[in-house]
Amino acid sequence: MGTKTVNVVANPDGKTYSITGFTAYGTVNAEYVRSMGSFSITNQYLGIALGKYYAYLCLCNASYVTWKDGAGLIGVNSLESPLTITFKDNGGWGTDIGDSFLTYAFTSQPPSSAGVAGYLELFSTPIVMVKKD
Questions:
Q1: Secondary structure (3-state) at 96
Q2: Is the pTM of this model over 0.70?
Q3: Which DSSP string corresponds to 97-129?
Q4: Could you tell me the pLDDT band of residue 105, with boundaries at 50, 70 and 90?
Q5: Deepest of 50, 75, 124, 125, by most Cβ within 10 A of its Cβ?
Q6: First to last CA, the chain
Q7: 106: CB partners within 8 A, 6+ apart
Q8: Count of CB atoms situated within 10 Å of the CB of 71
Q9: pLDDT single digits (tens) 28-54
């Protein structure tokens, strides 16, 4: 999956943002981490996919995938213009390092190994957002 255009909209709470267009299976929620001045995207439920699966955004690398709460990617902002945010592992997975996301389908909730149906989308690495004026 190559370049995508996404829309990032601030939520009324002033701390979170909704990202549409990132995945075909729902809106991705991101937290603004003030200390980093950037976004954090963690594993999350997206909605029902294909009429029968529970779709989750899950952190992954070339070998593994996790649906562990809190695992995800955090943005590192460029200093030049246009603003470019490159995402890196947030440390929430433990010793494994994530570098991308999958949209993963499960047959039950909460997500578990027994309920894995497979993946619906794989996102290219690295994940980068570039602000367009």
A1: coil
A2: yes
A3: ---EEEEEEESSSS--GGGEEEEEEE--SS-EE
A4: very high
A5: 75
A6: 24
A7: 53, 54, 55, 56, 112, 115, 116, 117
A8: 21
A9: 999 998 888 889 999 999 999 999 999
